[in-house]
Amino acid sequence: MKQSERGFTLLELMLVIGIIAVILAFAIPNFRPALDDARLEQAVQQLEADLMYARQLARTEQTASEVVFSSAGYEIKINNSVIKTQTLASGTQWDPVDPVPSSLSFNSDGSPGANDVAIWLKAADGTRAGVTVYGKTGRVEVVY
């Protein structure tokens, strides 16, 4: 008697690979919005953390700190020395509907040198999220 061979034929493997390819062709475009949202979420959380850092730095050093915004990102400065430079996450930009201020300062007590300030980011798909810095307290909060 012949011993039967175990395994898959080339035809069976090609059929399974073809089915997987068809499924991926439909699934991959649906991941793009989720990826854009994740990038926006990451950018907003990074901005929130950096603004809280700039506020705390001003309180700790007992001198004003400044966050200077540019089209590509922002810098945190204290005594005109750059402490940190951050570029915006890929696929995100400042929202042109609500222009970002050129800079935001925190006094030595941690209060901002301005009224309430909202800074908005926009994803490639148009989704918006932002950070508000409250003028009276200096509290930083993510806004959706």
SSE order and pairing:
Blueprint: H1 10-61, E1 65-69, E2 73-78, E3 81-87, E4 92-94, E5 103-106, E6 117-123, E7 128-133, E8 140-143
Antiparallel strand pairs: 1-2, 1-5, 2-3, 4-6, 6-7, 7-8
Folded structure, characterized:
With 144 residues, this protein is of the alpha+beta class. The chain has a single domain (10-143), classed as minor pseudopilin epsh fold, CATH 3.55.40.10. It is built from 1 helix and 8 strands, in the order αββββββββ. It has one helix at residues 10-61; strands spanning 65-69, 73-78, 81-87, 92-94, 103-106, 117-123, 128-133, 140-143. A 4-stranded antiparallel β-sheet has the order 3-2-1-5, with helices on one face. Strands 4-6-7-8 form a 4-stranded antiparallel β-sheet, with helices on one face. Strand 1 (65-69) and strand 2 (73-78) form a beta hairpin. The longest helix is centred in the N-terminal third of the chain and has 52 residues, at 10-61. The protein is elongated and about 85 Å long. The relative contact order is 0.16.
By DSSP, the count of extended strands is: 8
Number of helices: 1
Report the radius of gyration as a whole number of Å: 24 Å
Strand content: 25-35%
N-C termini distance: 72 Å
CATH class, named Alpha Beta
One letter per element, helices H and strands E, the order comes to HEEEEEEEE
**What fold name goes in the CATH topology slot?**
minor pseudopilin epsh fold
The CATH architecture assignment turns out to be 3-Layer(bab) Sandwich
Instruction: Write down the overall mean pLDDT.
Output: 91
